[in-house]
Records
---
Amino acid sequence: MTTRGGGLGGRDLLLVLLICLAWAGNFLTSALALREIPPFLFTALRFGILGLALIPLMKPPAQGQWPRLFAVAICLGLLHFGLSFTALKLAGDLSSPAIVMQSYVPMTALLGWVMLGERFGWRTGLAIAVSFGGVLVLGFDPIVLDHPASLISMLISAVFLALATVLMKPLKGLDVFSQQGWIAWISVLPLLAISEVIEPGAIARLTNVSWVGWVGAAYAAFISSLLGHGLFYVLVKRHPIAQVTPWLLISPVLAVVLGIVFWGDRPGPRLLVGGAMVLGGVLIIALRALAKSREVVREPTEI
C-alpha cells in the first residue's frame, strides 16, 4: 500500500476550503434557525432530512457492529449535536462556540490514551494543556461570562464528540454515507422524545417556522453533513488523515469572521487570546500526528 507524502495541493486545497466554508457557515445558518426551532427538535430535523437523503446509499454494518454503532449514534447524534446546538442557542456570539468546539481534539487524544492505550509525547501533552488553558482564558471574556451555560454545554458536547470519535475507530465496513445514515436514523426518535419533554409544544409550532428555520435545517443536513463530510471522506481516501486535519482549523477561523460580519460579534482580548491558545494547541496536536504518520514507513505490496 502506498500513500502520498507530498501533502495537499491545488484541487485538494480547494476541497478543504469548501469543507471549511460549509462547516463555518453551519454555525451562522443554524444560529439563525435556532431563533425559531429549539435545539433538540432542530437536531432531529437535521437528522431526519439527512437520513431520508441517504437511504439509497446506506449499507448494513458488519455482524457484531450494531452495539458500537448505537453507542456512537447516542454520543454523536443525540448528545453531541443536541448539546452543541443548545450551546449555540444560549451563546451571545458565534465565535466562542466555534472555538470551544475544537477542544474535542485534545479530549480525543486523552480518551485515546485512556481507552485505547494510544501514547503521545510531551509536546502533544503540552499542546493539550495549552488548549485547555485557552478554554479557561476564553471563559473569562465578558461575552462568555454572560452566557456560562453555553460554554458548559459546548464543553460537554465536545466530550461526547471525542468519545464518539474514539468509539468510531474500531467500526469496520461502513463508508461515511452509511455511517451518517445509520447515526441519523438511530438518533431521530430519541431526539424527538427529548424535544417533546423539554421543549413542549415545539413540534406543533413547526407550522409557524419561517423559511429561515427550514433552510437552516436543510443546510445542516445537505451542506454541512452531506457535502462537508462527503468531501472530507474523499480527501482522507487520497491522503493520510493527519495531512488533512491541520487544514480544518480554517473552519473555526471562518466562523469567527462570519460572526463578526453577520452576527455582530466583537471578540474581546480574552476571547482572542484564549481562542489562539485553543487553536494553537489543536494545530500542534494535528502536526504532531502528521509527523508521526510520516515516520511510519509503508512498503509497497503487489497484488
---
Amino acid sequence: MLEGKVAVVTGASAGIGEGIAHALADGGARVLLVARRGDVLDRLCAAIGDRASGLALDVAEPDAAQAMLDAAVARFGRADILVNNAGVFRVGGLDTFDLAALEPMIALNYAAPVRASYVFARAMKAQGSGHIVNVSSIGANLSSATAGVYGGLKRALEIASDALRIELAGSGVRVGIIAPGSTDTGIFDHLPADRRAAATAGLTPLAPADVAAAVRFMVDQPLHANVPHLRLYASGQQH
C-alpha cells in the first residue's frame, strides 16, 4: 500500500520520528525528513538511501508547513502522508514550571501540527487522497499534577485532529491520532535522574520502532478504512 507514496515526517532526526522514517521507507514510500539538525538529517538520509530527502527547518515557524509541502512536491511530485511527530516535553510543579517554556510548547506541540494538518489537508483534498497522522501521547487523557501543560496541549491536538477527520470524511483524506505510552527516546533527558527513573519504573518502555510499526499499520490500511485513534502502551504500564 505504501509503494510509490510520498510521506513527510517531522521531528525525524531521532527517536520516534527516525523510526517512522525507516518504517515508511522500508514499506516502499519516499520520505521527506524534517528536523532542525541538517547534519543529522544528512546521515539519516544516507542510511535510508535514495528514497529519502532531508529538509532542515524549525516546524514551529509559521511558514514551515507550506515550506514542507512545497519541498515534497518539488522533490517527489506530491505529498500523500504527513506524520506530525515533532514535539517537546516539559513538566514542572506550580513553583518550578518554567513559564518561558509555555509559548514554545504551544508553538511546537499544538500550533505547528494543526497548521501543517490544515495546509496538507487542503492539498490532499484537492488531489482526492491523503493521510495525516498526528502523534499525541497517553498523557492527553491523564491528569498529572506536574504535566498539565503537556497533557493539555496533546488533548487539544487530539480534539483538533478528530474534528478535521470528521470534516474530511468522504473526501479521500484520512486523519488519525497515535498516542504512545512510555517510550525509550530522549524525551526524558532533561529531567533529573530520579524523575527519569520514576518515569519507567517497573516496566520495559516501548522502543521507537514499536511506535513506528503502529504508524505504518495506520497508514497501510485499505482506502476504505481509517484508524482514527490508536493508543500504544508498554505492556507493564498501569496508567
---
Amino acid sequence: MKRAIGLLYGGKSAEHEVSLSTALAVSKALDFEKYDVYPVYITHDGEWRKGARLAETPETIEQLELGTADGTNKPNDVSSFLLTADAAALDVIIPLLHGPNGEDGTVQGLMEVMNLPYVGNGVLASSAGMDKVVMKQLFEIAGLKQTPYVYFLRNEWKLNQEALLDQVENELVWPVFVKPANLGSSVGISRAENRVELVEAVLEALKFDRKIVVEQGVVGREIEVGVLGNDTPECSVAGEIKPLKAFYDYQAKYKDGNTALIIPAELESAVYEKLTEDAIKAFKVLDCSGLVRADFFVTEDNEILINEVNTMPGFTPFSMFPLLWQHSDVTYPELIERLIELATERHTEKQQLQVKMN
C-alpha cells in the first residue's frame, strides 16, 4: 500500500524561491510507484493551498505554485488545512520551508499539535537553530569554539547606535560580517571593513529581522559536514566552499555560480575527526533530529571554529548537503528515503510516551 506524502513548501519568507526549488527537486526524486504525493503550497502572503495528488512528477516550479484560476485550488488558511481529514491521513509531511515561518519551529509546532509525522528537526532544534544568537550561546555552553560576536536588537540600535558601533570596534577586528539573526541562505548578510560600512550593513540586515548579529571575520577555509540520524547521528564526508568573491552570499549560492565546491575536502585525518566530533556535539546540544549541515572555519594552523548549523539546508541535488551524502555513497533518492524513515521512527517513539497519570 502506498504511503501518502505531503510536500510543504513556499512560505511567508525571503527564502520562498529557495523553498520552491527544493520542492521541485524533491518531487522529482520521490518514487511515485511507492508514494502518493500531495503538494501543499504556502504563498508569499501566508495562504495555504493544498493541491490534488500529483499524477506525475512536476517539471517546472510554476506547476507547484498552486493558483486559483481553475477553481480547484482555492486558498486555505492553516486551520482549514490541518483540521481536514485528508491532512490527518498523510503518513509523513516533508517541510521544505526555509527561513522564518517554516524553519524556525513554527510549522514544526503545528505538526506536533496535530500529531503528524514530519521530516527533520523538531520545535526546539528548529527555533534554536534559526536564531543565530541562541545557537551561539548554546554552542558556548557545549564548549564549541567559535568566532567572537556582538548582537543587539533594533530598538537598542535606535537608542544607542554610537555605543553599539563603539562596542563592535572595541571587541571585534575588521572585517566583520553583519547578519539578521533569524534568516538563512545568506539573505541580508553584508561584509563591513569600517564604521561607515557597518552602519550600512546593519540597516540592510534590519530589513529582515529585529535582532542583528555582528561576527568577526575569520581567515580560514569554509568546511561543511552533513549530519544524518536521530539518537545515533552519523556524518558525511567534509566539503569545502571556495567563493570566487568576498564571501558566500545569496547571489553566489543561487544566482551566478561564483563558487567552487570541493568534495571531499582535503583535510588531515585528525582535523576531519575533530570536525565530525564537533558536528555531532552541535547536533546533540540543539537536540536535533533527521538532518543538519554543520558549517565550520578551519584556520591555517588547523584551529576549528564552528560557524553555525543549518537545520533545513538547501536540498536540491546541487546543494551542499545532498552532494556531501552523494560522495558518502548515499544517492539523492536514498537520502530522501532515509529522512522519511527517520521521521517515522521519531514519531513512533513519541507515541510511546505516557500522557495520562495513573
